[in-house]
């Protein structure tokens, strides 16, 4: 859902943003590295800054007087202190309507990020999951199709 929204530049909603960035955070959330990655996404050119304060100031400068849409994807860290430090430039800069969208599989991550209101996606039905899987899987047209379909259905069930 986040990826569809981010990539849909034709929608009026996305046309409103001056800056947009997609940063994969994953399991190891490092404030300095994640800040650097956001800057790389929104700034043409390079910043050879290594210390946290310089990076935060550079990010504030880039966000100043701009409306931004930043996706932080696949977040696992629920360290409130790290999130508080990281989010400061986003809260103090940017125009009204700016968005930081965070995707995670962990409920406790949402509570660690300030001003975050989680939206929980419902699970897809098993039949719908199968239709998506089958549409994207390549099944042979002859021998072996039934066996592969059975394996595919087991995969769908296991993925829940």
TrEMBL record:
The lineage of its organism: Eukaryota, Viridiplantae, Streptophyta, Embryophyta, Tracheophyta. GO terms for biological process: defense response. SUPFAM superfamilies: P-loop containing nucleoside triphosphate hydrolases. Residues 8-137 form the NB-ARC domain. Keywords: Plant defense. It comes from the Eukaryota. The keyword Nucleus does not apply. InterPro entries: NB-ARC, P-loop_NTPase. This is Resistance protein. GO terms for molecular function: ADP binding.
């Amino acid at each position: 859902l986040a990826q569809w929204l981010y990539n849909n530049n034709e929608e009026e909603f996305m046309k409103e943003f001056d800056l947009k960035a997609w940063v994969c955070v994953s399991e190891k959330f490092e404030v300095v590295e994640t800040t650097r990655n956001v800057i790389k996404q929104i700034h043409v050119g390079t910043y050879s800054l290594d210390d946290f304060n310089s990076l935060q100031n550079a990010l504030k400068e880039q966000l100043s007087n701009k409306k931004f849409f930043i996706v932080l994807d696949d977040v696992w860290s629920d360290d409130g202190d790290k999130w508080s430090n990281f989010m400061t430039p986003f809260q103090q800069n940017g125009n009204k309507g700016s968005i930081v969208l965070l995707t995670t599989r962990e409920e406790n991550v949402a509570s660690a990020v300030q001003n975050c209101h989680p939206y929980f996606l419902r699970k897809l039905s098993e039949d719908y999951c199968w239709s998506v899987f089958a549409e994207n899987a390549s099944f042979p047209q002859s021998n072996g199709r039934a066996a592969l379909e059975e394996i595919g259905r087991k995969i769908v069930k296991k993925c829940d």
